[in-house]
Design brief:
This protein has about 240 residues and is mainly alpha-helical. The chain has 13 helices and no strands. The chain has a domain of about 130 residues: Regulator of G-protein Signalling 4, domain 2, CATH 1.10.167.10. Keywords: Signal transduction inhibitor.
Length: about 240
């Protein structure tokens, strides 16, 4: 008898730590097979089954897509057609601006429109300290070398902004904004009008999932030297 007890005690000592941990957390196998445990397990399964069957259970997983769909379907084909008349009409329409931004994200060039929006907001500043703070933020985010969302500007325009950033005015970014506007109008806007995003809207078709495309080569503003800067459009 003593030999048998010693044998079983040795087995318990050699028991893996994982199994011991499992027992501490969940209890012994004997307890789990008790009648009460079985009843509790059955009740949990029933509650889970009822929960999964409820429509509310699936609402969260579909909410983001439903919201996006509702946003897209509110744009009428007539509104979208107007965006094709000019780049200015596209940007002046809230839904047009949002749709164009979504298109630029598929091309990984959304920094251009974000810079343009930041400049528009900057020109509404009234407090001198606010002007300095916003100018510095725009410079660090979009203008300076290796900025996180650096826009493609020629050296001369960049140099003028760099020299004046310590004493900025509401017109400090006018030249840069005008050049980025020209780039988007002659390059991105042309592709936008041919994109599935835009064509689906003017045809009244449901929006398809957008595919991210490889960024096109970086155009330099030297390629648009024949286009005169028109700062007046921002005033």
């Amino acid at each position: 008898m003593e030999t048998s007890l010693f044998f079983f005690s040795q087995l318990n000592m050699c028991e893996p730590k994982e199994k011991t941990f499992f027992k501490l957390i969940y209890g012994s196998g004997k307890e789990e097979t008790s009648k009460e445990a079985k009843i509790r397990a059955k009740e949990k399964r029933n509650r889970l089954s009822l929960l999964v069957q409820k429509p509310e259970f699936h609402e969260d997983t579909l909410s983001s897509r439903s919201g996006q769909l509702a946003k897209e379907t509110r744009i009428s084909p007539e509104e979208a057609v107007i965006w094709g008349e000019s780049f200015d009409k596209l940007l002046s329409h809230k839904d047009g601006l949002e749709t164009f931004t979504r298109f630029l994200k598929t091309e990984f060039s959304e920094e251009n429109i974000e810079f343009w929006i930041a400049c528009e907001d900057f020109k509404k500043s009234k407090d001198p300290q606010q002007i300095i703070h916003k100018a510095k933020a725009i410079y660090e985010k979009f203008i300076q070398n290796d900025a996180p969302q650096e826009v493609n500007l020629d050296f001369h325009t960049k140099e003028i902004i760099t020299r004046s950033i310590t004493q900025p005015t509401l017109h400090s970014f006018d030249a840069a904004q005008s050049r980025v506007y020209q780039l988007m109008e002659q390059d991105s806007y042309t592709r936008f009008l041919k994109s599935d995003i835009y064509l689906d809207l003017i045809e009244g078709r449901p929006q398809r999932p957008t595919n991210l495309r490889r960024r096109s080569r970086s155009f330099t503003y030297n390629e648009f030297q024949d286009v005169k800067s028109d700062v007046a459009i921002w005033l």
